C-alpha cells in the first residue's frame, strides 16, 4: 500500500492527515481517492514519500472519530466546539466543549468550560473542567479553576489550583438528604 508510485496530480496522503478538517482516511480507499483534488500542487512534482500517520499509530485504542487540531500559531476565540471526539490544542482556544478527549500540548492554552471523558494536560487550562473518566496533568501542565474529575494523575511538577472535587465525592454529597447533612454539621459544631 505504501510502495505505490506517487500520482503527481494528487495531494500526498500525509497532507490530508495534517489537515484538521479533512475526514479521517479509510484504510480500504486508495490514496488518490482520499486526496480528493486532482489539480497539481507542486508544479507537477510529487513530494518524497513520507510514511503517513494512520489512526492506529497516532491514537490510542478507542480514540477514533472526528479530530480537531488547533495548531501552534492559531487562536480560536469565543467558540462552541460540537461533534468533536478529540481536540488537540497546540495554540490558544477560548471555547466551551462537551466531548471525549482533550489534549493540551506544552505551549497550548485552553480557556473556558469543558465536559470531557479524558483530559490530558501538558500546557495550561483555565476555567471549568469536568473530566468524567480521567484527568492527567503532566509535569509541564498547569490547571486552574473549577475542577471535577473521575480519576486524577498528576506528574511531579504538574500544578493544579482552584475548587477541586472528585465526581464520586460530589455524587455522595448530592445523594445525602439535606436534613442528614444538617444533623451532621450540628453534631460536629457541638
Characterize the structure shown.
The structure is a single chain. By secondary structure, this protein is an alpha/beta fold. The chain has a domain at 76-170. The chain has 5 helices and 9 strands; from the N terminus they run αααβββββββββαα. It has helices at residues 13-18, 31-35, 55-58, 167-175, 178-189, and strands at 67-70, 75-81, 86-89, 92-98, 101-104, 109-121, 124-137, 142-154, 159-166. Strands 1, 2, 3, 4, 5, 6, 7, 8 and 9 form a 9-stranded parallel β-sheet that branches. The longest helix has 12 residues, at 178-189. The model is unreliable at 8-62 (pLDDT under 50).
Quick structural gist:
The chain contains five helices and nine strands. With 190 residues, the protein is an alpha/beta fold.
Estimate the mean pLDDT confidence.
73
% residues in beta strands? 35-45%
Number of helices: 5
* β-strand number: 9
- Major β-sheet profile: 9 strands, parallel
Radius of gyration, CA atoms, in whole angstroms = 22 Å
Low-confidence stretches: 8-62
Structural class designation: alpha/beta
- In whole angstroms, the N-to-C terminal distance is 76 Å
State the order of secondary-structure elements, H for helix, E for strand. HHHEEEEEEEEEHH
The level of helicity is 10-25%
Shape: globular
What are the SSEs and their pairings?
Layout: H1 13-18, H2 31-35, H3 55-58, E1 67-70, E2 75-81, E3 86-89, E4 92-98, E5 101-104, E6 109-121, E7 124-137, E8 142-154, E9 159-166, H4 167-175, H5 178-189
Parallel strand pairs: 1-3, 2-4, 3-5, 4-6, 5-6, 6-7, 7-8, 8-9
